[in-house]
Write a structure and sequence with these properties.
By secondary structure, the protein is an alpha+beta fold. It contains five helices and five strands; from the N terminus they run ββββαβαααα. It is elongated, with a radius of gyration of 46 Å.
């Protein structure tokens, strides 16, 4: 039978309270135990005496009978001077995982590409461009012509509709001014 000195959880949800017990290692965490040797209440302040109560004589007795403390209990016993806790070293604990490393590399690559692009832009010869002021009036003229052409086209369509309704004698007289208006728009 392998003995363990461990904590058995009690208390309500989100309000933990632990009994420090000696139990067979095959028993469930909160199941049957051999002896209760203390309590631990993590909700109390660290300097409170009631936070940890531990019967050191009984703990020494069970360690003499081969009981192994859990990690947390080993810390408590080490503080009391009853057990020498082995310090562990995990140098890989603080290193980022593979996906985090890939993200960092992608960010670094993007920064390098941006710096290279900025360096190329700074090293490229400066080409003088035509003043923007000259281009703006040309665009305005085009913008002004478009509504005039649309208005002229609407007039032509309206005159054709009127021409269809009017008698044949009046139709040629009305078409002539429409043609002149269309020619005037083209000249502008």
């Amino acid at each position: 039978m392998a003995l363990k000195i461990r904590m058995s959880r009690g208390g309500s949800k989100k309000r933990p309270f632990y009994r420090i017990v000696v139990a067979d290692s095959r028993m469930p965490r909160d199941g049957r135990f051999i002896e209760k040797i203390g309590t631990y209440n993590p909700l109390l302040p660290k300097d409170d005496a009631a936070r940890l109560t531990l019967d050191l004589d009984r703990a020494k007795h069970w360690i003499g009978h081969g009981a192994k403390p859990s990690d947390r209990i080993a810390r408590f016993l080490d503080d009391a001077g009853l057990w020498k806790r082995v310090e562990r070293n995990n140098p890989q604990k603080g290193t980022p995982g593979q996906k985090a490393m890939e993200r960092q590399e992608a960010i670094a690559e993007a920064k390098r590409a941006a710096e290279e692009a900025a360096a190329e832009a700074a090293a490229a010869p400066v080409v003088e461009e035509a003043p923007v002021v000259e281009e703006a009036p040309a665009e305005e003229v085009v913008a002004e012509e478009a509504p005039a052409e649309e208005a002229a086209a609407e007039e032509v369509v309206a005159e054709e509709v009127v021409a269809e309704e009017a008698p044949a004698e009046e139709a040629p007289a009305e078409e002539a001014p429409a043609e002149e208006a269309a020619e005037e728009v083209k000249e502008d």
